[in-house]
Amino acid sequence: MNVSIDQSWKKYLISEFEKPYFKDLVAFVKQEYSTNTCYPKGGDIFNAFNHCTFENLKVVIIGQDPYHGPNQANGLCFSVNDGISHPPSLINIFKELQADFNMLYPKSGNLMPWADQGVLLLNATLTVRAHEAGSHQKKGWETFTDEVINVVSDQKENVVFLLWGGFAKKKAKLIDKTKHHILTSGHPSPLSANRGYWFGNKHFSETNSILRDLGKSEIDWTIQ
């Protein structure tokens, strides 16, 4: 695994790359990618950081695991490559977006335009074996991504964290609530959304309202 991560993040994370756990993680991922089909493709593993620079970061959305179907995962949580059918959670994200802004349902499920505007779409685990959900959990990724959240909390101010579902909400303990804004709701997966825990949260417009009040540019949530 080549740790090709944007320079803006390197000065904050370089010490992590030298730690024994991370070296073990790199060895594990290299072995997995050489002997199994894994996602996302190697060059996309750190896409969340390479499309959202540290300076540009305004919003963090936390996911759990990359999609494990062919050509789905592109290194951003909840996002899929162009031309790929939208997974159920992403469909519900887009339905909420539709209702929140009265906009058309997007054709593409690729969330790169969000990342490029300063939305860090961070999965807790950055790789997965094909068709085996959770197969790369507890190998070191969570230690690394928790440190990413710590760094953002410590080094930035007035970041909007969107914590969807029980797993993401547990990350709140890593965030300095006196400096940042935390919005929580149920997960957009059908199980949670259909029980009334997701739809109507208006997190997208609420995020823009917070950014507007801070004098920051809003996120254009439109996906074509």
Considering DSSP H and I runs of 4 or more, what fraction of the residues is helical? Answer: 25-40%
Gyration radius, rounded: 17 Å
Structural class: alpha/beta
Mean pLDDT: 96
The unreliable regions are: none
* Termini separation: 32 Å
Order of helices and strands: HHEHEHHEEHEHEHH
Shape: globular
User: Could you tell me the strand content as a percent range?
Assistant: 5-15%
Spatial strand sequence of the major β-sheet: 3-2-5-6
Distinct helical segment count: 9
* Multimeric status of the protein: single chain
**Total beta strand runs:** 6
Largest β-sheet summary = 4 strands, parallel
Describe what is shown at a glance.
With 224 residues, this protein is α/β, with parallel strands linked by helices. The chain has helices spanning 7-17, 20-35, 47-51, 88-101, 112-116, 141-155, 165-169, 190-193, 203-213, and strands at 38-39, 59-63, 119-123, 128-129, 160-164, 181-185.
